Amino acid sequence: MKRILVTGAVGQIGSELTMELRHRYGNDSVVAGVNRTQPTGELKESGPFETVDCTDIKQVEHAVKKYSIDCMYHLAAILSVVAEAKPMPAWNVNMNGLRNVLEVAREYTCAVFTPSSIGVFGPGTPLDNTPQDTVQRPNTMYGVTKMSGELLCDYYHKRFGIDTRGLRYPGIISCVTLPGGGTTDYAVEMFYKAIEKKAYTCTLKAGTFLDMMYMPDAIKSAIEVMEADPARLKHRNAFNVTAMSFDPEFLAAEIKKHIPDFMLNYEVDAVKQAIADSWPNNMDDSCAREEWDWSPDYNLSAMVKDMLEKLGEKLGK
Ligand code: SER
C-alpha cells in the first residue's frame, strides 16, 4: 500500500492532487505537507497534514518517519516570475528543498515525483515541436533550478536506485487555487476577469504561444507516470507533457464564444515577456505517449467550457 507525502499541498496543483490521491489511495494514506499557509476546508478535514518546510531536512524526515511514507510528491517550489525577482530564495527552495527530499528518500526508500517545467528550455532550444531530448540552456533562475533538478533526480535514480520520475509541466489552468508568481498565470487570470469584469489586460503580447494543460490532466499525468511500468521507461526526469498550445488571442476568442462582450487588452510586462519568449511554443510529448500511454482529456474548447462553468459557480455568477 502506498503512503504518500505531498509537499506544497496547499498550492495550485497540491490542493487538487492531494484530494485525488486521497480518493485513490485512502484519506489516511496521504499526508498534506504544508508550510506557511495552513490548509482549510476539505483538504484539512479529509486527512492528515503536517508542517513540512522542504528547506529544513529535519521536517521532511520527521514527516516521512512519522507516517511511514514510501512515496513523495514534491510540489513545493518558487515559480518563474518570483524566482526572477528573488533568485537566491528560489535557489534555496527549488534546489536545497529538492536535495533534502531526495536525501530523505534515499535513507527511507521512497519514490519521488518532481514536477519540472517548460522553463527548462531556453535559447538554442527548437521552440516548435520541442523534442524530449534537446538543447536545455535556460536563462531564468526558475529554469536553472528545474533543469538542475531534473539532473539531480536522474542522478539519484542511477546512483542510488531511487524511483524518481517527473514531468515537464506546461502552464496549468485551474479554478480551485490560484497559481502564484508564474509566467503562464495570465491564462488563469483571464478567466476570473472575463467572468467578473468582462475585460482583461494581458501582460504577454498577442502571438505568445505556450503549452498549457487543464488541471484534471495535470493530476492524471502525475498519478499515471508514478504508476507506470518501470520496465517501459526510457526517460524519467522529466517527460514533456502537453495538452494544447495557444496565445492570448486564441484563448480570448474561445472565451468570447461563451461571453461575447469579453474584451482583451494588452499591457506587456517586459520580464514576463522575456521569460515566455525563451520557452517553447509547443512541445513534442510523444515519449510520454509511448512510454506510459499519456493522453490528455481536455483540449482548448473543452477546457474553456468546463473552466467557465466551474469558475462561474465558484464566483456566484
Ligand atoms: N507555470 C510555470 C511558470 O509560469 C511554468 O512551469 O512559472
Number of strands: 14
Strand order within the widest sheet? 3-2-1-4-5-7-11
* The CATH topology of the largest domain: Rossmann fold
Count structural domains: 2
The set of bound ligands, ions and cofactors reads: serine
What do we call the CATH homologous superfamily of the largest domain?
A: NAD(P)-binding Rossmann-like Domain
Distance between the termini: 42 Å
The helical percent reads: 40-55%
Rg for CA atoms: 19 Å
Q: Low-confidence stretches at least 5 residues in length (pLDDT < 50)?
A: none
SSE order, one letter for each helix or strand: EHEHEHEHHEEHEEHEEHEEHEHEHH
**Highest-level CATH class of the largest domain:** Alpha Beta
- Report the CATH architecture of the largest domain: 3-Layer(aba) Sandwich
Overall residue-averaged pLDDT value: 97
Main sheet, how many strands, which sense, barrel?
7 strands, parallel
How much of the sequence lies in strands comes to 15-25%
Task: Tally the helices.
Answer: 12
